[in-house]
Amino acid sequence: MTGNEIRRKFLDYFERSGHKVVHSSPLLPANDPTLLFINAGMNQFKDVFLGLEKRDYKRAVTSQKCLRAGGKHNDLDEVGKTARHHTFFEMLGNFSFGDYFKNEAIEYAWDLLVNEFELEVNRMWFTYFEGDADVPADTEARDLWIKMGAAPERVLPFGKKDNFWQMGDTGPCGPCSEISYYLGDAPNDPEKNSPFWVNGPGDTTVEIWNLVFVQYNRTQEPDGSFKLTPLPTPSVDTGMGLERMTMVMQNVKTNYETDLIRPIVEFTAELAEPIANRSFGI
Ligand code: SER
């Protein structure tokens, strides 16, 4: 399946279930001084999540151009070191603005990955927020994955760094649940296809989709401290890396080898070749 077909399948799936297909916003945020570049699909809906703006739809789906090269979500230092970071990428996402919540978000994700994209359940890993002093453990998300069919040992708790999502220091945020996928050639090896690699070293097990349960607004107090205020209408914000999903579907080892990026590398190499062959008069 090509990268373009994967994008189309994602958008069509959620359109069929009542989501409005909304165009990607430009990379430069229109009205948000807290952000230099768009870093997630939810940015263009920030005020909708906060209840400050109303739209004539309560469900949306997008393929959003994102750039993570600075600020809270900065991939710049990872480029060239990992198989899956390149600062500019497309994020596929479905959104609920006070409509459905955790239950349906997890049902949709399972159905799309397992029944539509036909990913192997024994390569999938699921994570949920383990809880801290401010926010309780998200055992509901854990139980929902198990109800869908995940083996309990493949559903893992993680802390704030991995399983609590906020777009910046302030704004809508909440606990999240991620799906990672084992890409190696030994799915039955309990050491290789194991929890150790989830949010761990290397690129053989990669996060492909993040489901955020948007429940709070994070604000800064005059004394500089931060405060979480529950939002009146819990919402959903999800983000799947198109290039990572394409890596999985095309069974290649890096995002750079997908049909989304490889032609760009090859084209650049063709341009570079005559330059590399020039003697520069030396
Ligand atoms: N906002 C979340 C993320 O960027 C999910 O879309 O991961």
Quick structural summary:
With about 280 residues, the protein is α+β, with helices and mostly antiparallel strands. About 25% of the residues lie in helices and about 25% in strands.
Radius of gyration: 20 Å
Low-pLDDT stretches are: none
Principal-axes shape call: globular
Q: How many domains, in number, for the residues?
A: 1
Strand content: 25-35%
Fraction of residues in helix: 25-40%
Structural class: alpha+beta
Enumerate how many helices there are, as a single number.
7
The CATH topology is given as BirA Bifunctional Protein, domain 2
Look at the structure and name the CATH superfamily: Bira Bifunctional Protein, Domain 2
Largest sheet: 9 strands, mixed
Mean pLDDT: 95
Termini Cα gap? 48 Å
CATH structural architecture: 2-Layer Sandwich
CATH class: Alpha Beta
What molecules are bound to this protein? serine
